[in-house]
Fold this protein.
Amino acid sequence: MSISTIKEKNYKGKIAGCENNKMYHWHIVMFDKNINQMREGKYTTIKKLNEDLGLKLNGDYVKRIMTHYRADEKMRNKENSFLARWGHIKINRINETILTI
């Protein structure tokens, strides 16, 4: 039995690049500085969120945005501060089925 057959048989997670298109997992509200408007949306993956909004977020940044962990709230680092860059974004984790019509 080859390794790929074993992995397929004992499938316990997602393969690389796999997207779950049946559930929304992320709800985002952000202020877009280019058009001076609030933008809001629901996305299935962080990759899809980055593609649609033109961002470069990874799992660590998403966690820090959600919890404001190490956010430098007094803005000691000025324009290099975490909140100066991402303070205008609010991300929530959701589990919502996509309605197909």
Summary: The chain is about 30% helix and 25% strand.
